[in-house]
């Protein structure tokens, strides 16, 4: 029995040694997933910058944040720079911090009042009153479209849904960024790795 456990341990160590050369794949997957999300968010803010400033600052129909121009500049710059740096795997841990702050601000100011779900689904866990109320509205919308619209054409690209805009997606991105703070850009497939490699060689 002792020999069997020893042999099993040895095999496990060999497998672990081989697998470690591929441990950068997880970091690469997280980075590539987040790049288009932050690039699109930053690009949209930049293309409609004045609207972004007004939305950030207006207390009636916007977020009512102080210094809206500064906040808009910081959010836009963080998201665009974040997308580029995550794509390159450069300063991955560093850029993840302001991106996390951006996500936290978005969660608290935009998404939290809507509960958890991004897409309203009354049958899903964490369905709040707003989500439960969406079932009747969605059913009525389907009825109207079936009776007065070309329903097959309208649904050819996918089913109609009600956007609940809850915290679900923002929290998911935040968790992914937290993971990148701990694992970094990834072995072999990030500039962070090669910068550290060459600096270590020189020392």
TrEMBL record:
Principal location? membrane
TM segment ranges: 21-41, 61-87, 94-112, 170-189
Q: Which InterPro entries match?
A: DoxX (IPR032808), DoxX-like_oxidoreductase (IPR051907)
| UniProt superkingdom | Bacteria
Q: Does the keyword Membrane apply?
A: yes
> According to Swiss-Prot or TrEMBL, what is its membrane topology?
Multi-pass membrane protein
Q: Which family does it belong to?
A: Belongs to the DoxX family.
This protein's name: DoxX family protein
Which species is listed as the source? Acinetobacter modestus
């Amino acid at each position: 029995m002792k020999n069997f456990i020893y042999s099993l341990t040895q095999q496990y160590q060999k497998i672990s040694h081989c697998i470690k050369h591929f441990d950068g794949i997880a970091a690469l997957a997280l980075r590539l997933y987040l790049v288009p999300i932050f690039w699109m968010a930053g690009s949209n803010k930049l293309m409609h910058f004045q609207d972004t400033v007004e939305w950030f600052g207006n207390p009636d129909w916007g977020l009512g944040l102080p210094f809206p121009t500064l906040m808009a500049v910081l959010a836009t710059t963080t998201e665009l720079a974040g997308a580029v740096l995550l794509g390159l795997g450069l300063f991955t841990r560093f850029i993840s911090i302001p991106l996390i702050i951006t996500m936290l601000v978005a969660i608290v100011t935009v998404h939290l009042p809507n509960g958890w779900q991004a897409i309203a689904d009354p049958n899903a866990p964490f369905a709040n009153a707003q989500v439960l109320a969406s079932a009747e509205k969605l059913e009525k919308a389907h009825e109207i479209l079936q009776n007065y619209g070309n329903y097959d054409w309208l649904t050819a690209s996918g089913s109609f849904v009600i956007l609940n805009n809850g915290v679900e997606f923002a929290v998911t991105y935040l968790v992914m960024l937290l993971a990148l703070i701990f694992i970094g850009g990834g072995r072999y497939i990030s500039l962070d790795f090669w910068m550290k490699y060459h600096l270590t060689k020189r020392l």
